[in-house]
Design brief:
six-stranded mixed sheet, 9 helices, disordered C terminus
């Protein structure tokens, strides 16, 4: 074995991303989503982001996307990003272990909404911290890490073809937590000034059996070309 590469892709902007930003800016308690999390589609901008992402991935994979092993979260926004980015060049496998973190009772609530409507949960979240807090009916980050460890145990690491995963921001972060061997504190320190952006690429690699290293984190240079081609963002 000489090298391994894992390319982690966050889905393009979704309609829920747009609604959440608008609700937080307006000081609302509830985010107007209108569908269950698994069915949230990409926004118009998100579709353009996913298309631009396709050019980037083709370059990352030396023009041979079909040679990669590709997985996707079952959620619509991730699958649609994969289809728009890859077209018919690389079929992908859906794995429910790659889905977004489930937030249970907090679903569709803004930060203000949680504070106002569920003050005891807001206090418990502050006390336990982001990593271990599990909302009723939802998951802690540690729960997501457990299902990712299960996913990784099923991957054939002796197969040196690149791996591409279309997924969500928390999942990208927890892939790094596992592969790089972070502690809770180290993951927090890594993310405190970093955000996993929509349609961004995070690439980690490993030589032989050495340590994993981050080659790129949340890189979205491929989206710059959208503006050069006159693709103005739309909400």
């Amino acid at each position: 074995m000489t090298a391994r590469t894992v390319i982690l892709v966050r889905h393009g902007e979704s309609t829920a991303n747009v609604a959440a930003t608008a609700a937080e800016a307006a000081g609302l308690e509830v985010i107007a989503v209108g569908t269950r999390d698994a069915d949230v589609p990409l926004s118009a901008l998100g579709e353009r982001q996913a298309t631009a992402l396709g050019e980037r991935l083709s370059a990352e994979l030396d023009g041979r996307p079909a040679d990669a092993r590709v997985w996707s979260s079952p959620y619509r926004r991730a699958q649609d990003t994969a289809r728009l980015a890859l077209g018919d060049t690389a079929p992908f496998t859906i794995d429910e272990r790659l889905r977004d973190r489930e937030i249970g009772i907090l679903d569709t609530l803004t930060v203000l909404g949680v504070d106002v409507r569920l003050p005891e949960e807001a206090a418990r979240r502050r006390r336990l911290g982001k990593f271990y807090y599990r909302p009723p009916g939802g998951e802690a980050w540690t729960d997501v890490a457990l299902r990712l460890r299960s996913f990784m145990s099923d991957v054939d690491w002796d197969d040196e073809r690149p791996i591409v995963v279309f997924t969500h921001d928390a999942v990208v972060s927890l892939f790094l937590y596992i592969l790089l061997g972070f502690t809770e504190v180290e993951l927090h320190e890594f993310l405190v000034t970093r955000v996993v952006g929509n349609a961004s690429v995070t690439r980690v690699s490993q030589d032989s059996n050495g340590p994993w290293r981050v080659e790129e984190f949340s890189d979205d240079r491929h989206l710059d070309g959208m503006l050069r081609r006159g693709w103005a963002p739309r909400g």
